[in-house]
Specification:
The structure holds 2 protein chains of 2 kinds.
Chain A lengths: L6 E6 L3 H10 L8 E6 L7 H9 L4 E6 L10 H18 L7 E5 L5 H18 L7
Parallel strand pairs in A: 1-2, 1-3, 3-4
Chain B lengths: L3 E7 L5 H7 L4 H8 E5 L8 H5 L6 E7 L2 E3 H13 E7 L1 H5 L11 H11 L14 E4 L2 E4 L3 E6 L9 E3 L6 H13 L15 H4 L45 H4 L17 H12 L5 H10 L3 H5 L15
Parallel strand pairs in B: 1-2, 1-3, 3-5, 5-9
Antiparallel strand pairs in B: 4-8, 6-7
Helix pairs in contact in B: 2-7
The chains are: A alpha/beta, B alpha/beta.
Chain lengths: 135, 317
């Protein structure tokens, strides 16, 4: 059987979760590998949660928030925009591939964008193979 | 009251923790008054066979310093565990992996390559590496097996108490001596430190935390009264347990995190990374890139003492 990656997706309540909802109600098809977790803001996704997702069985982690400037809490997504690149630099030192973590922006009206991001990260992580956990 | 029996052991450590015990100065006499030291390789000439000959649980308390990175250290940790009523992870290395655990960014093969081939003082054209077993005319010579991954003490045996610090401060050692003397040891699992973060205890003036540049310690002479983070220096205070007496802060140096995470924090490095990114007050992509570049070695900085006990534990092999 071919490898099917598990992707944990942290979706912000105000934009991205609604974007995912729109994709669903519009009957758009996307790969079924994503496990969505609704959070109030992409700024709520502290780096420890991403590490925890990996240690708990995820092969990839997706963080989606409102477009910059659109944050319901004004600044939350800017915090995410700073944390995730720094986290990625650190993950590289741990030998964790860049493509396993992705931060992107999906508004409530962008169902199609949600589908394309989900399909893209699924394909990339599938190619990388399973995330190797430390024993 | 019969005298207590105390053992002190060093595994993957520098010896600083042993010296910290001697730094209690005249109180070392109090220690000698309440306890017989039955094993202390750094200071006294006992053999492993002396420990093996002891009854199980006959040592009252064992202060174990250093991380575990080879089979000898693991064997002695298990031996001392069997012989001791209370096992204490003494110092940052035993508690969290400490500086030796930075080797978890590499592995045995790379460590050997560096130590026995690349290091400038070597003359090893035959590429000889240590072997666990070498047979010579006189018989077999054995060496411990070196591990790929550096472990904390608690990852090898059950541990009753944790004493963080690189090395543990003298006043905390004195607290342990007092607890031993009174026979009133705290509940199992106690960490000898504060329940607050270092920031919470720090005497420096703290205002709004917003920075636009990160300085490495050698690039700036910090103001002595002002929060070091607010001056752009990565100080691990927000993600580090207090109780150390602010030794580094008072010397105008940033906290490096040797007391480990405060209660409730599961991953010290992730927490600190989050804090640094949060206070770095920029919004556009180029400036964010500059921030990422300014944190030269994020994993080594944020997990300087905490690699073994971190969520990721080591680099993928």
């Amino acid at each position: 059987m071919s490898f099917e990656p598990k992707i944990v997706a942290f979706l912000c309540n105000w934009c991205s979760y609604r974007g995912a909802d729109l994709a669903g109600t519009s009957r758009m098809k996307s790969t079924p590998n994503v496990r969505p977790i609704r959070v109030m803001c992409s700024g709520r996704v502290e780096p420890a949660l991403i590490l925890k997702a990996f240690t708990a069985g995820a092969d990839g982690v997706l963080v989606l928030g409102c477009h910059l400037g659109d944050c319901h809490y004004t600044e939350g997504n800017y915090k995410a925009a700073r944390r995730i690149p720094l986290l990625k630099k650190m993950l590289e030192q741990f030998g964790i591939e860049d493509e396993r973590v992705r931060l992107d922006w999906v508004s409530a009206s962008e169902g199609a964008n949600f589908v394309s991001i989900v399909n893209d990260i699924t394909a990339k992580v599938r190619e990388l193979g399973p995330f190797q956990r430390a024993s | 009251m019969a005298k207590l029996k105390l053992a002190i052991y060093w595994a993957a450590s520098c010896g600083g923790c042993d010296v910290a015990i001697l730094d209690t100065n005249e109180r070392i006499l109090d220690i000698a008054a309440i306890a017989d030291i039955v094993f202390w390789p750094l200071a006294l000439d006992f053999k492993y066979s002396d420990v093996e000959a002891m009854e199980d649980k006959s040592i009252d308390i064992c202060l174990f310093n250093g991380a575990v990175r080879n089979s000898e250290q693991e064997h002695i940790a298990k031996l001392l565990r069997a012989k001791s009523k209370a096992m204490v992870a003494f110092g940052a290395c035993a508690c969290f992996g400490g500086i030796p655990a930075l080797a978890n960014f590499t592995n045995r093969a790379e460590v050997f390559e560096r130590a026995y081939i690349e290091a400038p003082s070597n003359n090893n054209s035959n590429h000889t590496f240590p072997q666990t077993l070498t047979t010579v005319e006189e018989g077999d010579l054995e060496l411990p097996e070196f591990y790929d991954t550096v472990l904390t003490l608690a990852q090898v045996v059950d541990v009753e108490y944790f004493v963080p610090g690189c090395p543990p401060p003298v006043d905390i050692i004195n607290k342990i001596v007092d607890a031993l003397a009174s026979g009133q040891l705290p509940p199992v699992g106690t960490v000898f430190g504060s329940d607050k973060s270092l920031c919470d205890e720090c005497d420096r003036v703290k205002e709004e935390k917003k920075i636009t540049k990160i300085y490495r310690p050698h690039e700036i002479i910090p103001e002595p009264e002002k929060c070091l983070l607010e001056q752009g220096i990565i100080c691990m205070g927000p993600a580090t347990r207090g109780g150390c007496g602010q030794r580094c802060i008072k010397a105008n140096m940033p906290c490096r995190g040797c007391f480990g995470p405060p209660p409730g924090v599961i991953d010290q490095g992730a927490k600190m990374l989050s804090a640094v990114a949060s206070i770095y007050d920029v919004k556009d992509e180029a400036e964010i890139k500059k921030m990422v570049e300014e944190v030269v070695d994020p994993a080594g900085t944020f997990y300087r003492f905490g690699m073994s006990s971190s969520m990721l534990k080591r680099k993928r092999m």
